[in-house]
Amino acid sequence: MKKTNKIIYLFFLLFPVFCFAQETVEPIKFKANKVIYYFKKGKEKTICKGNAKIWRSDFFLQANKIEIYGKENNISKAYNNVKIISYKDSTIITGGYAEYNNETSYAKVFKNPILTVTNEKLTIHSGIMENFIKENRAVAIGNVVIEQTNYTAYCEKGVYYRDKQLIELTGNPVVYYEDNIFKSEKIIVYIKKKNIKLYGRVYAKLISDWTGSYGEETKNWTFKKNV
């Protein structure tokens, strides 16, 4: 009986550790030409004006003005000349206004956002740009225009996967690659492989240096540039 009690006691001692352990959130750092603090309990706010910056080990945000909310500084709003840099790669997002949640590692950029991958000479324009920092994923929504050397693409939604080096296009996507045209319900462009996959109703106009093949298992057409 004493042995059983010891087991039960040990279980309850360890149980909270397994149930309530949470991932540690790296706090942001900030600086600006002028910093104003408001300490009212429950309404804590920091206003950074003039060359305002916030950052942590994998993320950097710069703007003319940044407002930081909460006791833990987890919510931020950035105004005018917004620039976001993801340190894991060469991704830069610019725009006129941005909201950032440090707890979820999520940023949303408005007012003509542009994503630029400098080492790939890739730019993505859209109405709204979402940046999922830890997931290495960016989502462009509304009137999306994607430009890279030799091709231009249009769609309503484009998802850029940094690790996989591909862009998924949906919402009436069309790709103009040199003199060739590709249309379908969904298009995946492989940035470095010069490969394009088309899903659904497919239209392709091939002028030069491209071949296509149909995959029975994946139900898509793959078009590859001959090199």
What's the helix and strand layout?
Blueprint: H1 2-20, E1 29-31, E2 34-38, E3 45-56, E4 59-69, E5 75-86, E6 91-101, E7 106-110, E8 114-117, E9 122-125, E10 128-132, E11 137-148, E12 151-161, E13 166-170, E14 174-177, E15 180-183, E16 186-190, E17 195-199, E18 203-205, E19 210-215, E20 220-225
Antiparallel strand pairs: 1-3, 2-3, 3-4, 4-5, 5-6, 6-7, 6-8, 7-10, 8-9, 9-11, 10-11, 11-12, 12-13, 12-14, 13-16, 14-15, 15-18, 16-17, 17-20, 19-20
Word description of this protein:
This protein is mainly β. It folds into 2 domains: about 25-110, no CATH class; about 120-225, lipopolysaccharide transport protein A fold (Sandwich). The chain is built from 1 helix and 20 strands. A 6-stranded antiparallel beta barrel has the order 6-7-10-11-9-8. Strand 4 and strand 5 (about 75-85) form a beta hairpin.
- The CATH topology annotation of the largest domain reads as lipopolysaccharide transport protein A fold
Strand count, sense and closure of the main sheet? 6 strands, antiparallel, barrel
What is the top-level CATH class of the largest domain?
Answer: Mainly Beta
Secondary-structure-based class equals: mainly beta
Report the C-alpha radius of gyration, rounded: 23 Å
Quaternary organisation of the protein chains? single chain
Provide the spatial order of strands within the biggest beta sheet.
Answer: 6-7-10-11-9-8
Q: Could you give the order of the helices and strands? A: HEEEEEEEEEEEEEEEEEEEE
Tell me the distance between the termini.
77 Å
Give the fraction of residues assigned to helices. Answer: under 10%
Strand residue content: over 45%
- Parts with pLDDT < 50 across at least 5 consecutive residues: 7-15
Q: Compute the number of strand runs.
A: 20
The CATH architecture of the largest domain can be named as Sandwich
- Determine the number of helices (DSSP H or I, runs of at least 4 residues): 1
Shape: elongated
